[in-house]
Predict the structure.
Amino acid sequence: MYVHSNRAEWERWRIEPVGERFLLTSVAHGLHLGARPDGSVYTHANTYQWEQWSYSLW
């Protein structure tokens, strides 16, 4: 993760709750953020459970 001053529309993401999980959705493109096991990220249109994000508090 990184921080920068670019505030272009395509840089904005919306957090959408889906039950106990959530989707990170691009405001500009309507696509969801996904992550591969190697740590790289991609966008997709799926809303399947395995494409949703979850978190835990240690």
In short: Residues 9-53 form one domain.
